[in-house]
Amino acid sequence: MSDTLEAVVKALGHEPAIQGRPRWRPGVDVTRLPPELPEVLAGTPATWHEPRVAQEDGLVCRYDFDDDVPFAFDSSGSLNHGVVQLAKREADRGGQVLAFGERSGVTLPAGAHLFGPQPDEGTVALWVKPDFAAADLPDGLWDGYRVIFYAMLTDGNGLPDGWDEIGLFCHGPNLYAKCTGGQDGPFAAIPSPLKKGEWTHLCLTWTKTSRRLYVDGKLVADRQGTFVAPKLDDFPATLGIHAASRRWSWQGRLDGLRVWRRAVSEAEVAGLAG
Ligand SMILES: [Ca+2]
What we know:
By secondary structure, this protein is mainly β. It folds into 2 domains: 3-41, no CATH class; 59-273, Jelly Rolls. It contains 4 helices and 15 strands. Strands 1, 3, 4, 6, 11, 12, 13 and 15 form an 8-stranded antiparallel β-sheet that branches. The radius of gyration is 24 Å and the shape is globular. The model has no long low-confidence stretch (mean pLDDT 92). It binds calcium ion (CA). Calcium ion binds at residues 64-66, 93, 95-97, 255-256. Residues 64-66, 93, 95-97, 255-256 line the site of calcium ion.
């Protein structure tokens, strides 16, 4: 018996007699709905076809968007599907891509689920096509960010500038790549090679002793050293939006996201970008 019921029984001297117990509410009478809602109720339910799944060594996420699935389908077989918010599929790159605008993004599974809780190595690769010229982006502390991919330890940081983060983003005229454990900053900050309205392939890889960024299959940043692996937890990773602030959306198109739990080789990167 609960403490409350025990107290009631003690006060009454007997168990309470309950009368007028509330019943289930009656169902909604559709004939009484506002006139615009029956139209919605009569709408065609979403139907879609499951794309083909192809497993690959160490690959834990593959989004190609070449399907009619109402979410981001992971064809790596790892079930790391994503929730698409406001971004739309469009015909491009011989199939479909995802078009992003203000407040749009894709929420992926948690960083630790994708990469592991403190990943010594990994890869994030994808195609990007901005709707903006890097030279036109402001570079103040609180403006001009365009996030491509982000995974991070839980925190409420409003900017893509913390520790324990794996990310790719533009800020002002530069492209940044980070894989930060300890108190590292971005390992790559280069004049943005992205061109308005053009596709570019980006690939970030890391191991215990390296941090690398490839652009169109070519190595453009290569930091060697002894690195602390980023810590990750159950905070969701994101595509095309900053994970913590839900701001700094990508403006343009993204396609062909690949996430590996290993650092892919230079030859593999060249193959992806080919
Ligand atoms: Ca595609």
